[in-house]
């Protein structure tokens, strides 16, 4: 790895490393089933799972528990975007490399499918397996540039008042107080939540699916605070979407979980949860170990290039690996690749049988990627996530050492005391240091720019982030600088929700009898690029496979998103109003 050194100051930042640097003081561098054939796989039918991310591992898990013979084919590393990525060459003295990652993990309390899977992954000393490695965050911090910061306490649990007027007043006051917005705007936003929460399904899919969130909340007519927090932060930072693109239906569904359900009724756990260690150690490695125990086989370095079709079935998948090109045969194929990779497999032969898959070309992908800053002293920024409201690159961070059972001093060279893990959600807006987008910045410039944006938010009332404390940094290696084009490429873009995109999302099964789709682009309740959506889609794919196979095994459990039962009479009323061409009762 090429390495360059550069000194850091607020006024001058020069030279850096490509992906990770080492600095001296003052310098900046880089419910389980019993497995077995009798549990549902007649004659031990073979399944090829193409892709080893969360969707692929979930499909393999559910199938193996039901006695199928499963092989997972993965191009790079198991876990996909959810995996940890060791920082190459950073370990010394017998210590492992520093843990890097694509981005920090976030497990909202309304997730149901992922926690159910986690409970079925054994972990030494944990009564409920990997699920016990989830810990609740007590607060979130909203940090402004050159302005007052504030903390939002998390973890309310009580029975909400079902009356609409009380919903508006209670939630509106809570939003206005917590987010320091004018009371009238808090009440206005609470009313918009009420409009969505009392909308029937027909309106959600017929009207709100085709409207952008920013238009629904009328952001252009509101204060800067409202636009920054309710329109931009709620979408680009909290749920990896863009307020001018994402549909009201999708963001409204998330708002129904985060804000419309402030008392966490029906949640699996606390509103905001994270893992108590590096993702691989706390989740992915125990998961793959469990799958191996169930008989799942893994082939790494295997890239899927094409699907072969014969008699309205997939007859084989062409795989390229270190030994060349070969065709993999199986009774069933589960495509568990990312949207942009899956749609590259839809050949004319595939589309002849499943023409609806061509609509996937209308799905939009963009970038959301992590960078980690390793520090020589603890970063006492927040006891949870921090959102940097005015950061052009829509940054969110979390200080990890306070959360992990195995402390960071046990990694690397032994001097790292904390890791500030940062997600960069906006790669298309110019930054404050170079006036360039993240896509146009070298790796060194990305690190300097993110550091500068963090300092601009945190150091306005005291030096919370000191240059001298910076040990090193690590950028997701999926980001690759192309020197000739003077811009980056990204091997792991993220599916971004857009208004009207539901019609572009496929069902998990169609007319290709033995082909099943699993991934966060498949139609799910969450309808966002999330681990939960990937897990849910895989369960739906497995259930469809069980139907085709004529299996008598229990179907995978499926969960639905929370809806306040007290508002159901209003939704039934709204169904009549929508059918009559009238607006929602509260849409004034």
UniProtKB/TrEMBL annotation:
Which molecular-function annotation in GO is an example for this chain?
A: oxidoreductase activity
Q: Which residue ranges does the record assign to the Amine oxidase domain?
A: 54-546
Q: Which domain of life is it from?
A: Bacteria
| PROSITE patterns referenced in this protein's UniProt entry, alphabetically | TAT
Q: Which SUPFAM superfamilies match?
A: FAD/NAD(P)-binding domain
From which residue to which does any coiled coil extend?
none
Offer one Pfam family short name for this entry.
Answer: Amino_oxidase
Q: What is this protein called?
A: Uncharacterized protein with NAD-binding domain and iron-sulfur cluster
Which species is this UniProt entry from? Nocardia bhagyanarayanae
């Amino acid at each position: 790895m090429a390495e360059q050194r550069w000194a850091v100051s607020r006024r001058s930042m020069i030279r850096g490393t490509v992906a990770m640097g080492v600095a001296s003081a003052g310098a900046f561098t880089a419910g389980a089933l019993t497995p077995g054939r009798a549990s549902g796989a007649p004659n031990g039918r073979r399944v090829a799972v193409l892709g080893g991310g969360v969707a692929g591992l979930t499909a393999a898990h559910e199938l193996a528990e039901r006695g199928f013979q499963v092989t997972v084919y993965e191009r790079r590393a198991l876990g996909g975007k959810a995996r940890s990525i060791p920082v190459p060459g950073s370990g010394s003295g017998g210590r492992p490399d520093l843990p890097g990652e694509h981005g920090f993990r976030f497990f909202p309390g309304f997730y149901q499918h992922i926690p159910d899977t986690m409970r079925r992954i054994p972990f030494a000393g944990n009564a409920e397996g990997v699920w016990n490695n989830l810990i609740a965050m007590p607060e979130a911090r909203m940090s402004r540039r050159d302005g007052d910061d504030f903390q939002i306490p998390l973890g309310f649990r009580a029975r909400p008042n079902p009356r609409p007027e009380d919903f508006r007043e209670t939630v509106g006051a809570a939003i206005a107080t917590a987010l320091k917005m004018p009371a009238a705007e808090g009440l206005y936003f609470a009313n918009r939540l009420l409009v969505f929460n009392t909308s029937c399904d027909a309106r959600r899919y017929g009207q709100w699916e085709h409207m952008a969130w920013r238009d629904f909340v009328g952001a252009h007519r509101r204060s800067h605070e409202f636009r920054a927090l309710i329109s931009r932060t709620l979408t680009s930072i909290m749920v990896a979407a863009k307020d001018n693109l994402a549909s009201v239906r999708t963001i409204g569904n998330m708002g129904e979980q985060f804000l419309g359900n402030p008392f966490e009724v029906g949640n699996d756990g606390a509103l905001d949860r994270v893992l108590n260690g590096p993702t691989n150690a706390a989740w992915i490695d125990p998961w793959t170990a469990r799958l191996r125990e169930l008989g799942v086989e893994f082939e790494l370095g295997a890239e899927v290039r094409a699907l072969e079709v014969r008699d309205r079935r997939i007859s084989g998948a062409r795989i390229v690996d270190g030994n060349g090109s070969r065709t993999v045969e199986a009774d069933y194929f589960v495509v568990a690749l990312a949207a942009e990779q899956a749609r590259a497999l839809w050949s004319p032969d595939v589309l002849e049988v499943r023409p609806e898959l061509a609509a996937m070309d209308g799905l939009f992908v963009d970038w959301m990627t992590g960078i980690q800053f390793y520090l020589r002293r603890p970063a006492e920024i927040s006891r949870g996530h921090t959102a940097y409201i005015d950061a052009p690159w829509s940054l969110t961070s979390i200080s990890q050492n306070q959360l992990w059972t195995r402390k960071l001093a046990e990694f690397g060279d032994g001097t790292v005391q904390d890791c500030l893990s940062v997600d960069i959600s906006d790669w298309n807006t110019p930054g404050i240091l170079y006036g360039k987008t993240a896509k146009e910045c070298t790796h060194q410039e990305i690190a300097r720019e993110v550091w500068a944006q963090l300092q601009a938010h945190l150091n306005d009332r005291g030096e919370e982030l000191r240059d001298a404390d910076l040990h090193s940094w690590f950028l997701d290696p999926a980001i690759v600088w192309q020197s000739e084009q003077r811009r980056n490429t990204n091997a792991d873009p993220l599916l971004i929700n857009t208004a009207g995109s539901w019609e572009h999302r496929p069902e998990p099964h169609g007319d290709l009898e033995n082909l099943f789709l699993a991934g966060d682009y498949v139609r799910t309740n969450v309808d966002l690029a999330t681990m939960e959506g990937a897990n849910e889609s895989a369960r739906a794919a497995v259930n469809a496979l069980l139907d085709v196979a004529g299996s008598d095994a229990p179907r995978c459990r499926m969960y639905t998103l929370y809806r306040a039962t007290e508002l159901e009479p209003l939704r039934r009323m709204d169904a009549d109003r929508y059918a009559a061409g009238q607006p929602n009762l509260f849409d004034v």
